[in-house]
Amino acid sequence: MKSIKHILILFIALTTITTAFAQTTPTKADKKKAQQDAVKALVESQHYTFIAQYANPLGGGHRYLTSDYDLKIRKDSLIAYLPYFGRAYFDTGYGSSDNGIKFTSTKFTYKITAKKKGGWDVIIKPSDVKYMDTVNMYISADGYTNVQFTITNKSAISFDGVLKDKATKK
After folding, report:
1. What is the CATH number of the domain that holds 108?
2. Can you give the pTM of this predicted structure?
3. Measured between alpha carbons, how far is 146 from 16 in angstroms, rounded to an integer?
4. Each residue of 22-57: pLDDT tens digit?
Protein backbone atom coordinates (compact mmCIF):
# COMPACT_ATOMS: atom_id res chain seq x y z
CA MET A 1 0.00 0.00 0.00
CA LYS A 2 2.85 2.35 0.87
CA SER A 3 4.52 1.77 -2.50
CA ILE A 4 1.30 2.66 -4.37
CA LYS A 5 1.05 5.81 -2.26
CA HIS A 6 4.67 6.73 -3.09
CA ILE A 7 4.15 6.06 -6.79
CA LEU A 8 0.99 8.19 -6.78
CA ILE A 9 2.78 11.08 -5.03
CA LEU A 10 5.71 10.80 -7.44
CA PHE A 11 3.33 10.78 -10.41
CA ILE A 12 1.49 13.90 -9.17
CA ALA A 13 4.79 15.70 -8.49
CA LEU A 14 6.15 14.88 -11.98
CA THR A 15 2.90 15.96 -13.64
CA THR A 16 2.92 19.27 -11.75
CA ILE A 17 6.57 19.97 -12.62
CA THR A 18 6.04 19.05 -16.29
CA THR A 19 2.93 21.24 -16.53
CA ALA A 20 4.69 24.18 -14.87
CA PHE A 21 7.73 23.79 -17.14
CA ALA A 22 5.57 23.58 -20.28
CA GLN A 23 3.74 26.78 -19.35
CA THR A 24 6.92 28.83 -18.80
CA THR A 25 8.86 27.63 -21.84
CA PRO A 26 8.17 29.80 -24.89
CA THR A 27 7.07 27.92 -27.97
CA LYS A 28 8.77 28.16 -31.33
CA ALA A 29 5.86 30.30 -32.56
CA ASP A 30 6.26 32.64 -29.57
CA LYS A 31 9.98 33.07 -30.31
CA LYS A 32 9.29 33.75 -33.99
CA LYS A 33 6.60 36.34 -33.13
CA ALA A 34 8.98 38.05 -30.69
CA GLN A 35 11.69 38.18 -33.37
CA GLN A 36 9.26 39.62 -35.92
CA ASP A 37 8.07 42.25 -33.44
CA ALA A 38 11.69 43.21 -32.77
CA VAL A 39 12.40 43.56 -36.52
CA LYS A 40 9.28 45.70 -36.97
CA ALA A 41 10.37 47.97 -34.12
CA LEU A 42 13.83 48.36 -35.69
CA VAL A 43 12.46 49.23 -39.13
CA GLU A 44 10.00 51.74 -37.74
CA SER A 45 12.58 53.31 -35.39
CA GLN A 46 14.91 53.92 -38.34
CA HIS A 47 17.84 52.92 -36.16
CA TYR A 48 19.41 49.62 -37.24
CA THR A 49 22.35 48.10 -39.08
CA PHE A 50 22.24 45.87 -42.15
CA ILE A 51 25.04 43.27 -42.01
CA ALA A 52 25.97 42.13 -45.53
CA GLN A 53 26.68 38.41 -45.92
CA TYR A 54 26.54 38.03 -49.72
CA ALA A 55 27.18 40.37 -52.66
CA ASN A 56 25.23 39.93 -55.89
CA PRO A 57 26.91 41.87 -58.72
CA LEU A 58 24.79 42.58 -61.80
CA GLY A 59 26.92 40.50 -64.17
CA GLY A 60 28.37 38.00 -61.72
CA GLY A 61 27.50 35.31 -59.25
CA HIS A 62 26.58 35.23 -55.62
CA ARG A 63 29.71 36.07 -53.55
CA TYR A 64 30.05 35.20 -49.88
CA LEU A 65 31.59 38.08 -47.91
CA THR A 66 34.23 37.09 -45.38
CA SER A 67 34.81 40.57 -43.92
CA ASP A 68 32.53 42.84 -41.92
CA TYR A 69 30.50 45.06 -44.25
CA ASP A 70 27.45 47.03 -43.24
CA LEU A 71 24.96 49.77 -43.90
CA LYS A 72 23.96 51.78 -40.83
CA ILE A 73 20.57 53.45 -40.94
CA ARG A 74 19.90 56.19 -38.40
CA LYS A 75 17.30 58.95 -38.31
CA ASP A 76 20.01 61.54 -38.99
CA SER A 77 22.55 59.59 -41.06
CA LEU A 78 23.14 56.78 -43.51
CA ILE A 79 26.60 55.21 -43.37
CA ALA A 80 27.67 52.66 -45.98
CA TYR A 81 30.75 50.47 -45.84
CA LEU A 82 30.31 47.81 -48.52
CA PRO A 83 32.46 46.24 -51.25
CA TYR A 84 31.78 46.68 -54.93
CA PHE A 85 32.08 44.06 -57.67
CA GLY A 86 31.06 45.19 -61.10
CA ARG A 87 31.66 47.74 -63.79
CA ALA A 88 32.38 51.39 -63.06
CA TYR A 89 31.56 53.64 -66.01
CA PHE A 90 33.68 56.62 -64.93
CA ASP A 91 35.46 58.06 -61.86
CA THR A 92 33.63 56.89 -58.75
CA GLY A 93 34.23 60.02 -56.73
CA TYR A 94 34.25 58.05 -53.48
CA GLY A 95 37.97 58.66 -52.93
CA SER A 96 38.61 54.97 -52.51
CA SER A 97 41.01 52.92 -54.58
CA ASP A 98 39.01 49.70 -54.09
CA ASN A 99 35.81 51.18 -55.60
CA GLY A 100 33.69 50.09 -52.65
CA ILE A 101 30.41 51.69 -51.68
CA LYS A 102 31.55 53.92 -48.86
CA PHE A 103 29.72 57.09 -47.94
CA THR A 104 27.96 59.02 -45.21
CA SER A 105 24.74 60.85 -45.95
CA THR A 106 22.89 63.26 -43.68
CA LYS A 107 20.35 64.40 -46.28
CA PHE A 108 18.11 61.60 -47.45
CA THR A 109 14.50 60.48 -47.61
CA TYR A 110 13.36 57.26 -45.93
CA LYS A 111 10.08 55.68 -47.02
CA ILE A 112 8.64 52.46 -45.54
CA THR A 113 5.91 50.41 -47.22
CA ALA A 114 4.50 47.35 -45.45
CA LYS A 115 4.09 44.25 -47.64
CA LYS A 116 0.78 42.34 -47.60
CA LYS A 117 2.44 39.02 -46.77
CA GLY A 118 4.80 40.49 -44.16
CA GLY A 119 8.01 42.43 -44.39
CA TRP A 120 8.72 45.91 -45.70
CA ASP A 121 10.05 47.76 -48.69
CA VAL A 122 12.28 50.65 -47.70
CA ILE A 123 13.37 53.26 -50.24
CA ILE A 124 16.22 55.58 -49.30
CA LYS A 125 17.25 58.44 -51.57
CA PRO A 126 20.41 60.26 -50.48
CA SER A 127 20.64 63.76 -51.92
CA ASP A 128 24.15 64.61 -50.69
CA VAL A 129 26.12 61.64 -52.07
CA LYS A 130 27.62 62.00 -55.52
CA TYR A 131 26.51 59.27 -57.96
CA MET A 132 24.25 57.50 -55.42
CA ASP A 133 20.68 57.45 -56.70
CA THR A 134 18.63 55.01 -54.62
CA VAL A 135 19.01 52.35 -51.95
CA ASN A 136 16.12 49.85 -52.13
CA MET A 137 15.71 47.43 -49.26
CA TYR A 138 13.40 44.47 -48.89
CA ILE A 139 13.25 43.42 -45.24
CA SER A 140 11.46 40.19 -44.38
CA ALA A 141 9.46 39.89 -41.17
CA ASP A 142 12.29 37.71 -39.80
CA GLY A 143 14.97 40.32 -40.55
CA TYR A 144 16.51 38.80 -43.65
CA THR A 145 17.27 41.66 -45.99
CA ASN A 146 18.15 42.36 -49.60
CA VAL A 147 19.65 45.77 -50.36
CA GLN A 148 19.96 47.08 -53.94
CA PHE A 149 22.08 50.09 -54.84
CA THR A 150 21.34 52.10 -57.95
CA ILE A 151 24.46 54.09 -58.73
CA THR A 152 24.67 56.41 -61.73
CA ASN A 153 28.31 55.65 -62.57
CA LYS A 154 28.41 51.92 -61.84
CA SER A 155 26.41 48.83 -62.65
CA ALA A 156 23.83 47.93 -60.01
CA ILE A 157 24.69 45.62 -57.15
CA SER A 158 22.67 44.04 -54.36
CA PHE A 159 23.55 42.46 -51.04
CA ASP A 160 21.87 39.82 -48.90
CA GLY A 161 22.17 39.79 -45.14
CA VAL A 162 20.42 40.43 -41.85
CA LEU A 163 19.34 43.34 -39.69
CA LYS A 164 20.88 43.90 -36.31
CA ASP A 165 19.96 46.23 -33.50
CA LYS A 166 22.30 49.17 -33.05
CA ALA A 167 23.46 47.74 -29.71
CA THR A 168 24.22 44.28 -31.10
CA LYS A 169 27.87 43.51 -31.69
CA LYS A 170 28.92 41.99 -35.02
Report:
1. 2.40.128.410
2. 0.77
3. 47
4. 556 778 888 888 888 889 899 989 999 999 999 999
